[in-house]
Design goal:
- Keywords: Copper, Metal-binding, Oxidoreductase, Signal, TPQ.
- Belongs to the copper/topaquinone oxidase family.
- It contains ten helices and 34 strands.
- By secondary structure, the protein is mainly β.
- It has three domains: 111 residues, Nuclear Transport Factor 2, Chain: A; 125 residues, Nuclear Transport Factor 2, Chain: A (Roll); 352 residues, Copper amine oxidase, catalytic domain (Beta-galactosidase, Chain A, domain 5, Distorted Sandwich).
- The strands form four sheets. It has a 16-stranded antiparallel beta sheet that branches.
- The longest helix has 26 residues.
- The protein is globular.
């Protein structure tokens, strides 16, 4: 080999080695950590939003101490109270009257006194009842006043009280100690009962008339996901007496047959007069109902991060995001709620809140066919569950604790039970690509702020979202997941659902969610206006012999509450909006439109003896005058006495004029759920999402998102790879950083 050739090969080898070293050094250099930038906008709230803030644990302690020392009656801790005891059932913040709050926020008035609302059960009295007290001022209470008569027009009878957790424990002990032992052979040989192998699930309401407290308890195998493991046994327990020793069994159901009690069931079994359906005993993990993944972990799913830090701020209970600001809170009964919602500094809504979540079931088993759950009575806020980072919300979301006092005289903390995050929805909010006349592209990423909580009420998990878009729109959305409820499959069961496992009937049911939306569009006084379309037939002006059918805008002002109450399945104007007394640049009344996303099942027939208690569900939308004496569409007392409802929403609609008044929209969204095999083990959120949108309608002179700093525009004549022309071109540099992922923690199994 010539020396020249050797030298050339040596130079090439050195060059190759040098290049490889450069590549390796470049790849080995770790990206820098993402640096957070300070928000350009300043939070000028100055603590005013605290007028809506939830009670702190310290304030709850003070309220309990005050009640214990000033009511002059013995109070037992609700966590172990008997029905015949007095106890504090719950303590929550008492939101001041709207006029007082607005005078404070807008008029320079004094801050309203901070007060609590305490619900007490008085079982140890000659006339047992439920009483509500306002306690204040906080943080050092000095007074209390009974508001029950003022709020409900009379006393709240004791039988209407929501069921305490301890009462369910007492029923479970009653079943174990007195009911099941009455049928020893049946329970041992058919149920394979060992004292702990069965779980009971309540139905509700409890009976057929006011005063009843008679509940069907459905028995399931006590395994993971027990809701889909029915064993065919259901027991009707009369627990209306305040003396637990007088509780009794009113009826027993097994595999399609009814019995007077467990003694009769045992006798029928021993004599061979019973058709036994032996259910294979499931392992503790539930087998088919287990949520343990059936596949090993593989490549990591996509993650979202903020290369320059969060673009929103959270201070106390106040959130600031671009043009949006609002206060948030968590009602122990109804869950997530927002107040003083402003866009570009102007209030568009005073309150947006969940009111109720209801499910109506069908079945050929007694527990299923009699179930109409009203989750507010159980406590949507109370059952708000700790969120799992990276699954329930993005990993880098802001997580906040929720404090509540319910069914105990000690406050509880649900860790990381509320999350706030900005989400890139992966699609444009708006865009246009021009290939006619001029060549350009203009667009805006759809990035929105989400406030979320998830309540697990029994078998269902409800994902509650409020979403704020750069276009000035607000979305209220709920997604349903969790376990479907079920009945034991027998007889004509397939008329009430689908078979989803060997002995499991996934029972048909409806979901109905009610919201309160107190819009203040351009001020407190609004009117309700409907726009829609109709085709009109006309002659072509340039050719009168020819006919044209053209859409025409229809307009109507809805003057009264009766006109503004739209039944569930009725036709509603497709554009319906709250109109202000001011106009935009183009002469139109400024407005916010209500747009509902719903595929509800049918409402309970109005002939039903309990329908008035849930009469809010008659309407997909009802707009009424706002009144302090009509703060909620329902009551926590309606669940256990729907036959004489404490609050009947139908009474709100009495044909009052709603022109130029302070108005409230009551929105009902829902869906029909016919469980199917894909609901095993768990119902998915896809397709089970409902809610509403509030959208500006001539509120602005043009789309407010055009002022977003996220906008992109470039022409064919510009260098669209330059950062100053196209900010997206900077992403390889601006976003090439490592986000700071905090260690994974979870406190959901603490403080149970």
């Amino acid at each position: 080999m010539h020396l020249k050739t050797v030298l050339i090969l040596l130079v090439l080898a050195l060059a190759t080695i040098f290049a490889l070293v450069c590549v390796l050094l470049t790849r080995g250099r770790a990206p820098s950590t993402c640096q957070h930038q300070l928000l350009e906008q300043e939070d000028t709230d100055d603590g005013q939003s605290l007028v809506f803030a939830d009670l702190t644990p310290e304030e709850m302690v003070q309220v309990v101490r005050y009640l214990q020392g000033n009511l002059r009656v013995p109070l037992v801790d609700a966590s172990h109270a008997k029905p015949s005891d007095n106890c504090i059932a719950s303590v929550d913040v008492q939101i001041p009257a709207k006029a007082e709050v607005l005078w404070f926020l807008d008029g320079g008035g004094a801050q309203p006194p901070r007060e609590a609302l305490a619900v007490l059960y008085f079982g140890n009295q000659p006339d047992p009842n439920v009483t509500e007290y306002v306690v204040g001022p906080l943080p050092t209470p000095a007074y209390h006043r009974d508001i029950t008569m003022q709020k409900y027009g009379g006393k709240v009878p004791y039988h209407r009280r929501p069921t305490l957790a301890v009462e369910y424990k007492q029923v479970a002990e009653f079943l174990k100690a007195q009911v099941f032992p009455a049928a020893p052979s049946f329970m041992r040989q058919v149920m394979e009962y060992d004292g702990a192998s069965l779980a009971a699930l309540t139905s509700a309401p409890r009976g057929f008339q006011s005063g009843d407290r008679i509940t069907w308890f459905v028995l399931f195998q006590n395994v993971s996901g027990f809701f889909v493991h029915p064993v065919g046994l259901e027991v009707l327990v009369d627990h209306s007496s305040l003396d637990i020793s007088r509780w009794a069994v009113s009826r027993v159901f097994y595999n399609g047959q009814y019995y007077q009690d467990m003694v009769q069931l045992e006798s029928a079994y021993v004599q061979g007069r019973i058709r036994v359906e032996k259910v294979r005993r499931a392992p503790r993990d539930g087998d088919f109902s287990s949520l343990k993944p059936r596949a090993p972990a593989a490549a990591l799913f996509p993650l979202q991060y903020e290369p320059q830090g969060p673009r929103y701020s959270v201070r106390n209970n106040h959130v600031l995001f671009q043009a949006w600001s609002f206060a948030f809170g968590m009602s122990v009964n109804t869950g997530l709620r927002l107040f003083d919602i402003r866009h570009k500094g102007e209030r568009v809504a005073y309150e947006i809140s969940v009111q109720e979540a209801m499910s109506v079931y069908g079945s050929n088993c007694p527990g299923g066919m009699s179930t109409r759950y009203m989750d507010g009575s159980f406590g949507i806020g109370r059952y708000t569950s700790p969120l799992v980072r990276g699954i329930d919300c993005p990993y880098l979301a802001t997580y906040l604790d929720v404090h509540y006092l319910a069914y105990s005289q000690v406050s509880r903390t649900s860790k990381s039970a509320l999350c706030i995050f900005e989400q890139n929805l992966g699609s444009p909010l708006r865009r246009h690509y021009s290939n006619l006349q001029s060549l350009y592209y203009g667009g805006l990423v759809n990035s929105a702020l989400v406030v979320r909580s998830i309540a697990t009420v029994g078998n269902y998990d409800y994902v509650w979202d409020f979403i704020f878009y750069q276009s000035g729109a607000i979305e209220g959305k709920v997604q349903a997941t969790g376990f479907t409820s079920s009945s034991f499959l027998h007889g004509d069961g397939l008329q009430y659902g689908n078979r989803v496992w060997e002995h499991t009937l996934g029972t048909i049911h409806t979901h109905s969610i009610n919201y309160k939306v107190d819009l203040d569009v351009g001020g407190v006084k609004n009117s309700l206006v409907a726009h829609d379309m109709a085709f009109e037939v006309t002659r072509a002006p340039w050719n009168p012999e020819q006919q044209i059918e053209r859409p025409r805008l229809t307009k109507k002002v809805l003057d009264t509450e009766d006109q503004a109450a739209f039944r569930l399945q009725s036709k509603m104007p497709r554009y319906i909006y709250f109109a202000a007394n001011s106009k935009n640049k183009w002469g139109h009344q400024r407005g916010y439109r209500i747009q509902i996303t719903s595929f509800s099942g049918d409402h309970v027939p109005e002939a039903s003896s309990m329908e008035r208690a849930i009469s809010w569900a008659r309407y997909q939308l009802a707009v009424t005058r706002r009144k302090e004496e009509e703060p909620t569409s329902t009551s926590i007392y309606n669940q256990n006495d729907p036959w004489t409802p404490t609050v009947a929403f139908a009474d709100f609609i009495n044909n009052e004029t709603i022109t130029n008044e302070d108005l409230v929209a009551w929105i009902t969204a829902g869906f029909l759920h016919i469980p199917h095999s894909e609901d095993i083990p768990n119902t998915v959120t896809v397709g089970n999402s409902i809610g509403f949108l509030l959208r500006p309608y001539n509120y602005y002179d043009l789309d407010p998102s055009i002022y977003s700093q996220d906008g992109v525009f470039f022409t064919s004549e510009q260098d669209f790879t330059a950062c100053e022309i196209n900010p997206v071109a900077c992403l390889p540099k601006a976003a090439s950083c490592l986000p700071n992922f905090p260690p994974f923690t979870y406190d959901g199994f603490q403080n149970m």
